[in-house]
Fold this sequence. Notes:
Layout: E1 4-7, H1 18-23, E2 63-65, H2 69-79, H3 86-94, E3 96-98, E4 100-107, E5 118-123, H4 136-139, E6 146-149, E7 157-164, H5 165-172, H6 176-191, E8 201-204, E9 217-219, H7 226-233, E10 248-250, H8 263-282
Parallel strand pairs: 2-10
Antiparallel strand pairs: 1-5, 3-9, 4-7, 4-8, 5-6, 6-7
Helix pairs in contact: 3-7
The protein binds flavin-adenine dinucleotide.
Residues 15-17, 19-20, 24, 26, 33-34, 36-37, 48, 51, 66-68, 71, 100, 102, 207, 212-213, 216-217, 252-253, 261-264, 266 line the site of flavin-adenine dinucleotide (FAD).
GO molecular function: polyamine oxidase activity
GO cellular component, one term: cytoplasm
Main location: cytoplasm
Amino acid sequence: MGRVCWLQLFFFGGGGGHTGLGVLPQVHLGVTPPSPPSLPAASGLVEMGAHWIHGPSPGNPVFCLATRYGFLKERHQDFFQPPLPKRKAEAIRHLGFGTNNKIFLEFEQPFWEPQQQLLEVVWEDESPLEEPSANLEANWFKKLIGFVVLQPPEHGHVLCGFIAGEESEYMETLSDAEVLSTMTRVLRTLTGNPRLPAPRSVLRSRWHSASYTRGSYSYVAVGSSGDDIDVLAQPLPEDPKDPRPLQLLFAGEATHRTFYSTTHGALLSGWREAERLNQLFKAPGPTPQL
Ligand SMILES: Cc1cc2nc3c(=O)[nH]c(=O)nc-3n(C[C@H](O)[C@H](O)[C@H](O)COP(=O)(O)OP(=O)(O)OC[C@H]3O[C@@H](n4cnc5c(N)ncnc54)[C@H](O)[C@@H]3O)c2cc1C
């Protein structure tokens, strides 16, 4: 393990930062996700919770699919019948979907100063522009960017570490005991105190392993562009002249060209699709049967 030092910052920007702590209902490990829906049946009410806008009319369902993009990326081929149009399938293939996890460490007593908000880990002799070594087993923890001190301390002395990328996915394969012991090693190195008490408990997210998420949020991968996001967001059927009624709508962070990967992007995409339905209901001609 290299030598490390720490810095304190007062704010934290970007996806996976502070706001995530407040807005995400994401640390509910062990929650059973809903069962997969059976789309082709499409008769009667399909109830999938808040993530679906649905209609009970047989033969004319309007669904709004807002499932986590990772699930769609992995499963769209067997999820839809008939399959998604080639253009949309290609867009899904091009866009990236990554992993960002949180590691919560609870301590008997804080070893940090009361005013400290963030403990940032900086590895000496390594450029932040370089990926750490490919040896994940030996180096995964070096991807950890630091720890946020959770407030208020009356609720416990808890640090929340952030780790993204392949290293984060590797971390998911380890046991709690292994993560706890590695975090203890990192913190002992960081503080220069080899006897620093180990955390009394550890709790972490596993967004990559969770079968209904398969990761954290989308990104514009090398070789993809905002155009792929727009294609993904297109409702089906795509051609406005297609005589068939609107069948399938797409929402979720990965469908927002500007604010992909964020909660507000997800929210705006939901409003966008709700507005599409509003326009459908307002349109002259026979009232769509939903
Ligand atoms: C660690 C972390 C930190 C983050 N920090 C921030 C931040 O600071 N700021 C910010 O703006 N964003 C942040 N984000 C991103 C933000 O959380 C997401 O962009 C947002 O929640 C995505 O919303 P969504 O509606 O697209 O997907 P989700 O909220 O994931 O909703 C999709 C839902 O579909 C369900 N589902 C999946 N498959 C099926 C199925 N087959 N049937 C039924 N249901 C299914 C899933 O269980 C899930 O509940 C963070 C994310 C992570 C993981």
